[in-house]
Design a protein that fits this description.
Shape of chain B: globular
Strand content of chain B: 15-25%
Number of strands of chain B: 15
Number of strands of chain A: 13
Structural class of chain B: alpha/beta
Largest sheet of chain A: 7 strands, mixed
Shape of chain A: elongated
Radius of gyration of chain B: 22 Å
Distance between the termini of chain B: 63 Å
Structural class of chain A: alpha/beta
CATH topology of the largest domain in chain B: Rossmann fold
CATH superfamily of the largest domain in chain B: Thiamin diphosphate (ThDP)-binding fold, Pyr/PP domains
Radius of gyration of chain A: 36 Å
Oligomer: heterodimer
Strand content of chain A: 15-25%
Number of helices of chain B: 13
Helix content of chain A: 25-40%
CATH architecture of the largest domain in chain B: 3-Layer(aba) Sandwich
Strand order of the largest sheet of chain B: 3-2-4-5-7-6-13
C-alpha cells in the first residue's frame, strides 16, 4: 500500500464528528452543491491560520446556517432572526479580547435584520459579518428575499419578482460601503475555484482586521442554492458566476485596513472599593443616622405648586433633605406625566415620624402656592385648620377660606432684594420655617449646603432664607391684629 | 449607614452597579429615560458598557449577547418598548440567560400616554412573548426597594438562569426617598461556567434556544417549568401591613400599595379592621399567603391602576373561598386614598355590623 499524503484536510476548528447534530454525524446538513458548506470551510481555515480558535465566538442566525454550532469547535451563540449583529455587539463589548463572527443569510441580514446590520456597521463594531447571499429563503422553502433577482419566480412571487410591486434587489455591500465606519467590505462569489480562492482572501482579510482591532468588516458571499433554485450544482455555480455576479458586482467596496488605527483597549475596571465614590454615595452619616429616631409626633403633608422655573421642586427637595437629617421619614414626589411639559410644576412632600405610607398628597396640611392658578387648583383640597403660603401681596378674595391660616408675601420680590429673584423658593422656605418651626435652622442650613451647588449660590440662599424669616416675622406681627 | 435622598430611578441604577451590572443597553422612552441616563453616566465609570441601541429589539439582543458572555446586564423601557423586546425576552428565557429588564409602566394600549398605569401586569407576569416561559417579576414600592430589589433581581437571574423583570410605575421611579446603599456589599460577578466568553475554557460552551427534537424540547420546557415551581417555593415575597386582625384585606402593588396603606389607616379610624397584603414578587405570586389569610378575611379588595389584571391571580389564589372585590383607575389616573375610602365604605360591611343587622332581622 503506497503511503498517502493528505494535502487538504478538515480545519481543526471544525469538529471531527458532528455530535450536536445527533445523526449522520459525519456529514453536514447542507444540500449537495450548497454554498454554505464552502463558506464555512473558508472561514474555518481562516480561523486555523490566524490561530484564534479559542477566542472565536460564532453567532449563528436563523435560516439554513442556524446550525453552525454543529460544526464549529469554537464558542457558539445562536440568536433570533436578524439579530446577530446586535447580539455580536453585546458579546464583543462584554469580551473585547474575543473574535466575534456573525454569519447571516439574506433574509436574516437584508430583510428582518436590516436595522441591526446597518447600525452595527455604522457604529463600527469590532465584529466580522459573513453574509451569505443566495437570493432566496432556503430554510422556509423558497420565498422571495430582498436580494431575489427581478423576474425570479419564488413561492411568494409566483409570477416573478416585480420591481413595481416587490421593489429591487438590495445591494448590501454598496449600502455598507456608503457608511463611514466599516474598514473592510467586499463582495465575493462561489461560482468557480478562482472565485472561491478570492473569497478566502477576503474572508481572511475581514477576520484579520478584527484581530488587529481595526473596525467593522463584512464579506458578502454570492452563494449557490441548487435545491431551491431547482438547478443542479454545476448549473447553480454557473448562475452565480454569470447571472448573480452581473446584478451584484464583485470586488472590494471598502478597504481601509492599511491606514485604520486600532481601537484603544478598554480601561480596566475600577476596584470595588472605588464604587461608593464613583456612585457619589454619602461618606458621612446624616446626623439622624447616629441619633435615635425623632420623638416628635409629626405628619406634614405638603403640596408646593407654581410655574416651572420658580424652584418648586428644589424647595420640596430641601424640605425632604432637611427632614431626613432631622430623623424623620420623608418622601418627595414631583408632578409627573403630561404636566411635566406644560409649564406648571408641583410636588408633594411628606415628613413623618413614622414610615411614610402614601407619598401622594391629596389633602395638604401645608399648601405653598407660588402663583394664582396653583392656589385656585389646590386651595379647596387644603385641610381645615391648615396653613397656606401664597406668593403675592394679598390672598385673592375669591380663594380666601376662613378655616385656613393664609399668608401672602411677595417672595420673589423679597428674593430680588438679596440679589436674585431665583432665590424666591428659599425665601419661601425661610417664611415657612418662621411660621411653623417645622425644622431646626441648623439642620436646614446643613441640607442647603449639601444640595445647593457652589459657594456663591449658597451665600445668596442663606441671605434669602433669613430674608424670608424676617419678612414672615414682620408679617406675623402685623397679621396678629388682622387675620388673613 | 448614611442615607441618600434619591429618586427611585437613580437608586435602581446605583443598586445595579453595586450588584455588579456592567452592561446597559437601552432605547429612549418616557418614562424610563432617567434610568438610561443615569446608566449612561455611572456604568462606564464602573468599567462597564452603556450603549443606546437603534431600537428596543436591538437593545434586548445586545443584552442577550452580554448575558451570553457572562456579564450582568440590564435594560429599561416602558410598555411599547417592552412589547418590542418580547421576542428577545422569550429567547433569553429559552436560552436560560440571566438579565434584568425594567419596565417603568405608562398608559396603554398603543401609544397610550406617558402617565403612570399598571396595565402591563399580564404582559410581565404571564409571559408576553411566545412559548412556555415566565420572567420572575419584582414590584418595588419605595426608593429603597428600587435599589434592593435590583440587587435581588440580579441574584435571582443568576440563580435561575432566567430573565427577571422589575415592574414599576412612574411614581415609584420619580419619587425621592432616603436610601441606604451600603448595607450590602458591592458585588463582582465571577464568570459563570456556562458562559461563552471567547476563551479556551469556555470554547465548548453554547447558547441556544433551538431544540429540534420534540422529546428534547419537551424536556427543556419541563426544566424551565421546574425552575418556576422551585421559585414559587423559595422566592415568593410579600409585605403584610396590619393584617394580623384584618377582616378586610386590600391587595395592591407599587404606588397603589402605598396609597392603600393610607386607606387602611383611614378605615381603622372608623373602626374597620383593614389591612394590606402587598405582593412584592408578582411572579411567583404569593398565593400561599392569600390562602393563609382566608379564615380571618371577609373580603379581599384589589386596587390596581388598570381595569383589573392582578385581580385574576388573587381570585386564582383564593379559589372562590372568599369574595374578591376590585376597583381600578387607568389612563394615567392615580386613585386617591379618599376615593378608594369612599367606595370601600359603600362596598364593605364589617362582620360586627352585619351580625348586629342579622340579629335585628331575626329578632
Amino acid at each position: 500500500m503506497p503511503e498517502l499524503k493528505v494535502t487538504h484536510q478538515k480545519a481543526e476548528c471544525l469538529y471531527d464528528s458532528y455530535e450536536r447534530k445527533g445523526e449522520l454525524t459525519h456529514q453536514t446538513h447542507y444540500c449537495p452543491g450548497c454554498g454554505h458548506g464552502i463558506t464555512m470551510k473558508l472561514l474555518a481555515e481562516t480561523i486555523d491560520e490566524l490561530g484564534i480558535r479559542d477566542r472565536v465566538i460564532m453567532v449563528s442566525p436563523v435560516g439554513c446556517s442556524v446550525f453552525l454550532y454543529y460544526y464549529f469547535d469554537t464558542g457558539n451563540v445562536q440568536v433570533a432572526h436578524g439579530r446577530a449583529p446586535a447580539v455580536a455587539t453585546g458579546l464583543k463589548r462584554a469580551r473585547p479580547d474575543s473574535i466575534v463572527i456573525s454569519y447571516q443569510g439574506d433574509g436574516d441580514l437584508a430583510a428582518i435584520g436590516s436595522a441591526e446590520i446597518l447600525h452595527a456597521a455604522n457604529r463600527g463594531e469590532l465584529i466580522t459579518c459573513i453574509f451569505a447571499n443566495n437570493a432566496i429563503y432556503g430554510m422556509t422553502g423558497g420565498q422571495m428575499a430582498p436580494t431575489t433577482l427581478l423576474g425570479k419566480k419564488t413561492t411568494t412571487t409566483p409570477f416573478g419578482r416585480d420591481k413595481i410591486k416587490d421593489g429591487y434587489p438590495l445591494h448590501i455591500s454598496e449600502v455598507m460601503s456608503s457608511l463611514d465606519a466599516p474598514v473592510f467590505v467586499e463582495r465575493v462569489a462561489l461560482g468557480n475555484t478562482k472565485q472561491i480562492l478570492a473569497a478566502k482572501k477576503a474572508i481572511r482579510k475581514a477576520v484579520e482586521s478584527q484581530v488587529k482591532g481595526l473596525g467593522f468588516s463584512l464579506v458578502e458571499v454570492l452563494s449557490p442554492c441548487p435545491t431551491i433554485w431547482k438547478q443542479d450544482p454545476v448549473e447553480a455555480q454557473r448562475f452565480v458566476r454569470e447571472v448573480m455576479a452581473d446584478i451584484y458586482p464583485l470586488g472590494n467596496k471598502r478597504d481601509r485596513t492599511a491606514d485604520a488605527e486600532p481601537h484603544p483597549a478598554p480601561a480596566p475596571e475600577p476596584a470595588l472599593s472605588e464604587l461608593p465614590a464613583i456612585l457619589k454615595l454619602p461618606k458621612e452619616p446624616a446626623p439622624a443616622d447616629a441619633a435615635p429616631p425623632n420623638p416628635r409626633e409629626v405628619d406634614y403633608r405638603i403640596k408646593i405648586a407654581g410655574f416651572g422655573g420658580q424652584g418648586v421642586l428644589l424647595l420640596g427637595q430641601l424640605l425632604a433633605e432637611a427632614g431626613m437629617d432631622d430623623g424623620l421619614a420623608v418622601s418627595w414626589l414631583p408632578s409627573y406625566g403630561p404636566e411635566m411639559r406644560s409649564g406648571t410644576s408641583n410636588c408633594h412632600v411628606r415628613l413623618n415620624n413614622r414610615p411614610v405610607d402614601s407619598p401622594v398628597v391629596t389633602r395638604s396640611n401645608i399648601l405653598i402656592a407660588l402663583n394664582e392658578p396653583s392656589l385656585q387648583k389646590f386651595v379647596s383640597l387644603a385641610e381645615p385648620g391648615s396653613l397656606v403660603l401664597y406668593n403675592g401681596d394679598s390672598i385673592p378674595a375669591e380663594f380666601r377660606r376662613e378655616d385656613l391660616t393664609m399668608h401672602a408675601l411677595p417672595f420673589f420680590e423679597l428674593a430680588d432684594e438679596v440679589g436674585t429673584a431665583k432665590a424666591g423658593n428659599v425665601v419661601v422656605l425661610g417664611a415657612l420655617l418662621e411660621v411653623t418651626g417645622l425644622l431646626p435652622d441648623e439642620t436646614v442650613d446643613r441640607a442647603m449646603a449639601r444640595v445647593v451647588k457652589g459657594e456663591k449660590w449658597l451665600e445668596i440662599d442663606r441671605k434669602a432664607l433669613s430674608r424670608g424669616k424676617q419678612a414672615m416675622a414682620a408679617s406675623l406681627g402685623k397679621e396678629a391684629a388682622c387675620h388673613v | 449607614m448614611p442615607k441618600q435622598l434619591i429618586k427611585g430611578n437613580d437608586a435602581l441604577v446605583k443598586g445595579s452597579v453595586l450588584a455588579g451590572c456592567r452592561a446597559f443597553y437601552g432605547y429612549p422612552i418616557t418614562p424610563a429615560n432617567e434610568i438610561a441616563e443615569a446608566a449612561a453616566y455611572y456604568i462606564p465609570l464602573a468599567g462597564g458598557t452603556f450603549l443606546q441601541a437603534e431600537s428596543e429589539v436591538a437593545a434586548i439582543n445586545m443584552v442577550y449577547g452580554a448575558a451570553s458572555a457572562g456579564i450582568r446586564s440590564m435594560t429599561a423601557s416602558s410598555g411599547p418598548g417592552i412589547s418590542l423586546m418580547s421576542e428577545g425576552i422569550s429567547y433569553l428565557a429559552g436560552a436560560e440567560l440571566p438579565c434584568v429588564i425594567v419596565n417603568v409602566m405608562r398608559g396603554g394600549p398603543g401609544l397610550g400616554n406617558i402617565a403612570p398605569e399598571q396595565g402591563d401586569y399580564f404582559q410581565a407576569v404571564k409571559g408576553g412573548g411566545h412559548g412556555c416561559y415566565h420572567c420572575l417579576v419584582l414590584a418595588p414600592a419605595t426608593a429603597q426597594e428600587m435599589c434592593d430589589l435590583t440587587r435581588l433581581a440580579f441574584d435571582l437571574a443568576d440563580k435561575y438562569r432566567n430573565p427577571v423583570m422589575i415592574l414599576v410605575d412612574g411614581y415609584t421611579g420619580q419619587m425621592m426617598e432616603p436610601v441606604d446603599f451600603l448595607s450590602t456589599e458591592a458585588h463582582r460577578r465571577r464568570l459563570p461556567e456556562w458562559a461563552v466568553a471567547g476563551t479556551a475554557e469556555t470554547r465548548h460552551n453554547m447558547v441556544t434556544s433551538l431544540i429540534i427534537q420534540a422529546d428534547g424540547l419537551e424536556a427543556h420546557v419541563r426544566k424551565l417549568e421546574a425552575k418556576y415551581i422551585r421559585a414559587e417555593q423559595e422566592e415568593t415575597l410579600w409585605e403584610n401591613y396590619r393584617t394580623e386582625d384584618a377582616e378586610l384585606v386590600f391587595v395592591g402593588y407599587g404606588i397603589v400599595a402605598r396609597i392603600l396603606k393610607s386607606v387602611v389607616e383611614m378605615l381603622r379610624e372608623r373602626g374597620i379592621r383593614a389591612g394590606l397584603l402587598r405582593p412584592i414578587t408578582l411572579f411567583p405570586f404569593p398565593s400561599a399567603e392569600f390562602r393563609r389569610l382566608i379564615p380571618q378575611t371577609e373580603l379581599f379588595y384589589v386596587v390596581e391602576m388598570s381595569t383589573g389584571q392582578m385581580v385574576e391571580d388573587v381570585r386564582l389564589a383564593v379559589e372562590g373561598a372568599r369574595p374578591v372585590a376590585f376597583q381600578g383607575r387607568c389612563g394615567g389616573n392615580v386613585p386617591t386614598a379618599e376615593e378608594i375610602f369612599e367606595k370601600v365604605l359603600r362596598d364593605f360591611q364589617p362582620r360586627a355590623a352585619k351580625t348586629a343587622e342579622e340579629a335585628l332581622t331575626h329578632a
